[in-house]
Amino acid sequence: MPAADTTGPTRLLVVYYSRNGSVEKLAEAAAAAAREAGAEVRVRRAREVADAETMRKVEGWAESAARQNALYEAPSEDDAEWADAILFGTPSYFGAMATELKNFLDRLGPQWKKGSLSGKVGGAFATASWPHGGSEVVTLSLYAPMAHLGMVILPTGYTDEAMLEAGSPYGASAIVGAEHDDPREADFEAARHQGRRTVAIAAALVAAGEMPSRKPKEEKE
Ligand SMILES: Cc1cc2nc3c(=O)[nH]c(=O)nc-3n(C[C@H](O)[C@H](O)[C@H](O)COP(=O)(O)O)c2cc1C
């Protein structure tokens, strides 16, 4: 039986949705820390499900979407298969993840059927406008699809001092207010920790020959 490829940098996919840029900033912080740790990182922005008329109703939404879409490709099923680890980022919308991120998850049926995401490391992060605005429950809600896909769910826990100052044991987060203030430095530090930790655990699974993305094709299907 051909051996899994245990060489090369750990591959992290950061897939997020953001209307106003807050989740994008946490995504970039996690991605930058992962790159500094030696990982190959793809940052992808889930595309709009809300129609153009809805996006025009709030000042700045359409412009922010256009800016981000010029910077980041849309996530694909291939990105998910490529990755050794996936971090999902979303705003909190009435205590739930954004439809746009869910829409990406809902396209992963073929990967579920093949079991090709099973064994990949997964984590989540979220933003909300207000304290107790839902970021913890939204982060936890992302654990469910990760479980159904057979992923190795990696909470942030209190695995770094950064997690005593920001985020939650479930993942990085930021409370950005109604005007979408910048996340605090402590929030960025929690996101960076999550990026580094995700890559470190994924790297250990790659080295152990236990990563589905590294197995020869015929073994995956
Ligand atoms: C439909 C909708 C529902 C929202 N519900 C809540 C909520 O229940 N509690 C909260 O704190 N913020 C809520 N927000 C605010 C978003 O969580 C906030 O704008 C988002 O986290 C900012 O992230 P972004 O800058 O990446 O878009 C809601 C926003 C929208 C558009």
* Oligomer status: single chain
Mean residue pLDDT? 95
CATH topology: Rossmann fold
In one word, what is the shape?
globular
Structural class: alpha/beta
Distance between the termini: 14 Å
Outline the low-pLDDT stretches. Answer: none
CATH class: Alpha Beta
Strand content: 5-15%
Helix content: 40-55%
How many E-type strands? 6
Kindly summarize this structure in a few lines.
With 221 residues, the protein is an alpha/beta fold. The protein has a single domain (11-220), classed as Rossmann fold (3-Layer(aba) Sandwich), CATH 3.40.50. It contains 11 helices and 6 strands.
How would you describe this structure to a colleague?
This protein has one domain: Flavodoxin domain (Rossmann fold). It starts with 10 loop residues before the first strand and ends with a helix. It is built from eleven helices and six strands. Helix content is 43%, strand content 14%. With 221 residues, it is α/β, with parallel strands linked by helices. Helix 1 links the parallel strand 1 and strand 2. The longest helix has 23 residues. Strands 1, 2, 3, 4, 5 and 6 form a six-stranded parallel sheet that branches. The mean pLDDT is 95. The site of flavin mononucleotide has 19 residues, from helix 1 and strand 4.
Topology, element by element:
Elements: E1 11-16, H1 22-36, E2 40-45, H2 52-57, H3 61-71, H4 77-82, E3 85-91, H5 99-105, H6 109-114, E4 121-128, H7 135-141, H8 143-148, E5 152-153, H9 162-165, E6 173-175, H10 185-207, H11 217-220
Parallel strand pairs: 1-2, 1-3, 3-4, 4-5, 4-6
Helix pairs in contact: 1-10
